[in-house]
Each structure stands twice: as C-alpha cells, then as structure tokens.
Amino acid sequence: MARIRPTQVADDGFWDDEPPSRGKKVARYAAPVAVAGIAAATIGLVPALASTGDPNLPKISAKELISKMAASDAQQMSGSVKITTDLGIPSLPGGGSLADLGGAQGGEASASPDSRLMELVSGSHTLRVATDGPDKQRVSIVENAAEYSMIHNGDEIWAYDSGSNSAYHATAPKEAKAKGGHRHELPKDLRGATPQEIAKTVLASVDNTTDVTVDGTSRVAGRDAYDLLIKPKADSDSTIGSVRIAVDADNGVPLKFTLSPKSGGKAAIDVGYTKVDFGKPKASTFDFTPPKGAKVTEAPKAGRPEAKDFGGKDFGGKDFKGAQGALSGLKVVGKGWDSIARLDTPGGAASTNPGGDSGPGAASGLLGGFGKEVKGDFGSGTVVSTRLVNALLTNDGKVFVGAVDKDALVKAANAAK
User: Fold this and answer.
1) Span 142-194, pLDDT tens digits
2) What is the DSSP code string of 178-214?
3) How far is it, in rounded angstroms, from Cα 164 to Cα 106?
4) How many C-beta atoms lie closer than 10 Å to residue 15's C-beta?
5) Coiled-coil ranges per the record (predicted)?
6) Helix ranges restricted to H, 90-204
7) CB 343 within 8 A of CB 398
8) What's the distance, CA 412 to chain centroid?
9) 274-321 tens-digit pLDDT
C-alpha cells in the first residue's frame, strides 16, 4: 500500500521517548496471534521446581506458577512491546509471499483496524501499549516514518494512520449503551499482541499432551521473572519445539512469550516487553482528536445496506451465507499439539470453474507455484510449509492444516479418503 508524505505525529503524552522519526518506509504490522493460537494447542501440568538462577527467586512449582498467572488482576499498565516473527513463509513465483495476499482492504487511505490484520507476518516491530481497565486501551504500531494507533475509550473507537493522515471512527449504538455493552472493540488480533494475551491463549485449556516445567529465572524489562517452559511430549508430530513464558515474579503478569520450532534455529515468534509500568496511565493517553485535514471514515451503522467490510463483501447477506457453507465442512482431527483442521470444500474438485479464480483447482494451481506435490492413498495434492504451520490441499478439494509435520498431514488425508 503506497504511502503519502507522513504527517507530524502529535505529542499527546503517550510517548515516554521521542515520537517516531522520519526515515525510510518499513513494512506494515499485524500481530501473528492467529499462528500463536495454533501454537498454543493445550497444556498439561507436570510439577517441577524452579532451578537456581539469576535472579535468585524462591522455588515455585509449575502448577503454582500457572495459578499465580491465573490470579493476576493487573488492570492498569503501559509500556513498549517488541514483536519478532520468523515464520518461514514461502515466496510466490516472481517475488512476494503469502503474507502479501492478505493486504489491506478498503483503499490506500483506509485506517480501519480490520485492514491491518494480515499486513505483516515477519520481521521486528515495536508497539506501545496502554490499558486502564476494560474500557480504555491504546495500541500504537511504531514505524520509522509514521505511527498507526488504535484507541478505545468508553463507547468510542478510533484508529489513526499518520502516514496517510487517515482515521477510522466507530461508536457503540444506543441500544448497546443502554444494555451496558459495546458493539465495537479493538479487533482481538490487534488487542492480543501482548505477552499476557498470547499466554492466555496457550493456557486456555489443559490436557496430557504437554510437559510443563519451571525452567529457571530471568530479567525482562527490568523485572524479575520465572520462566515457564511448555513442550509437546516426545512422541508428538508437532512442528513446535517449545513455548517459553517469562512470568513476573511479583504480580504474575506474563512479560515475554517465545515460541521455538522443533526444527531449531531462532524463535519463530518472540513477543516481550522492553519497558513496562503497572501504574495508572495518564487520562490523556486515551484521548484522540483527528488532526487537521485527516480523512475520517465512519464505521457503518448496523442494519444499513452499506454495512459491509472494506473489501465490499456483504457479510450480512449472501457472502456470509457462502462463507458459512464453506466452513460447514470444517472438522478437527487429532488431539492437542497434533490437532489438524480438515476442511471439505463444497462440491470438491467439481466446484472448480475452468479459467476461474476460485475453487480447489484454482487454489491448487496457485499453491503449485511454491508448494510441493505429495502422493498417498488419498491420491495427490500439494503441501505448503512454513516453520510452524503446514497445509495440504488435495486434488479432490480437501484441505488439511496444522502445526504438524508433512507426514502427519498425509496420514490424516489417507485416513479421510
């Protein structure tokens, strides 16, 4: 998405350091929480005691540390978060990658939060975050030449892109206010780009497919922390080697989340605070007024004909029904870390339109440019691999996706034939 000359980032009291300087354009941002969700799977409890380390903290078992995290009720905080992702997404023929297929919708000046979700899934990024209870949050994505901010303050949602000087605004409808609810919130994938939110996903359910231990101590953002190590059991087909969560020794808040692939090398996902303050943020942190000359897009009201997403899809009508039909064949096979999502597309291969741009045949043709052909009892298909998530699209229209190795996908496809 092309950038116009960035406007000056306003000094609204949110920044402790200098605002972003002008410089060369960098890639856009989106939190890789969707992949982190697959990585989360489920965990089991294996008691272990914290080893001696630096800092020297009292011993604690894995069960006690998880309980400490669950009991944490920090409602006020602010700080800086660094996100680094290296998912190993394959390149498309002629350049670009799968990440480019999920670019922003709604025009080059769109500041809609939903248009940011798939804009970037690699590299290093800096976020400034602040929260004061459930009704006040702010997340700012810091670029060298610009800033993208999302502000939730009561019934108001604002998003602002200083690079294009464009803003997005939404308010809760009157009926939602009367019921004490809010229809508009920051998208979960953008609100959840913090260590504690990702950790919640990991710890959401518990079973016996995982080993959990306390593996020493560390210092994160100047605070003492216990390191919780989460690993699939040795007989797992998962592509995930381990998940490490640094937990604040004082208040139980996760300060850092690191996901490492089984294949080795550097972390695939690393999200951690570089600065954190658990005091009450300034009230002005959550105030926002569009700068002079900013293009403001108002969110459509519920029930209006134009209530579509920024790609022009009518998710209240036929497009939503079509999406429901496509997902009606979704099943999950396997357990825990070895879970595989299976999707049987309506009509199978017969739904492909020759020369069209949709259906399993079209998708298989696209994947063939950077995937690998595989064969089995199920027939043949194409496997696309990243460092974490692999996908198999069979020629008869079945899709198998999971944070598992290629052989596990082929085995699932053979069992489903």
Assistant:
1) 888 788 999 999 999 999 999 899 999 998 765 554 454 444 455 554 555 67
2) HTT--S----HHHHT-SHHHHHHHHTS-B-TTEEEEE
3) 13
4) 17
5) none
6) 174-178, 188-191, 195-202
7) yes
8) 26
9) 999 999 999 999 999 999 999 999 988 655 444 444 344 443 444 444
CA distance 257 to 99: 22
Residue with token string 């940011």: 116
50: left (phi over 0), alpha (psi -120 to 50) or beta: beta
Give the list of residues 6+ apart from residue 27 with CB closer than 8 angstroms, or none: 119, 120, 122, 123
The arrangement of strands across the sheet holding 340-344 comes to 330-333, 340-344, 398-402, 390-394, 379-385, 372-376
Q: Which of 251, 190, 189, 194 is nearest to 226 (CA)?
A: 251
**Are residues 392 and 399 in contact, defined by beta-carbon separation less than 8 angstroms?**
yes
Q: Which amino acid is residue 127, in one-letter code?
A: L
Whole-angstrom distance, CA of residue 275 vs CA of residue 66: 23
Helix/strand/coil for 267 = coil
Identify the bridge partners of residue 398 per DSSP, sorted by sequence position: 344
State how far the alpha carbon of 46 is from the alpha carbons of 66, 138, 232, 238, in Å. Answer: 11, 37, 12, 19
**Residue of 161, 185, 79, 165 lying closest to 126 (CA atoms):** 79
**How far is the CA of 173 from the CAs of 181, 304, 308, 382, in angstroms?**
9, 13, 17, 46
Q: Which of 172, 160, 163, 185 is nearest to 290 (CA)?
A: 160
Distance between CA atoms of 161 and 6, rounded to whole angstroms? 9
DSSP-assigned letters across all residues of 362-413: HHHHHHTTTSEEEEETTEEEEEEE-SS-EEEEETTSEEEEESB-HHHHHHHH
Say how far apart CA 8 and CA 22 lie, in whole Å: 9
Angle (nearest 5°) at CA 185 between 70 and 129 = 60
DSSP E strands, 320-378? 330-333, 340-344, 372-376
Distance CA 62, CA 45 (A): 7
Name the strands in the sheet holding 166-171, side by side, starting at the edge strand that comes first in the sequence: 210-220, 223-232, 240-248, 254-261, 269-277, 76-86, 122-132, 136-142, 147-153, 156-161, 166-171, 295-298
Can you read off the two tokens belonging to residue 388?
Answer: 């974490």
Q: What is the CA radius of gyration of the chain?
A: 23
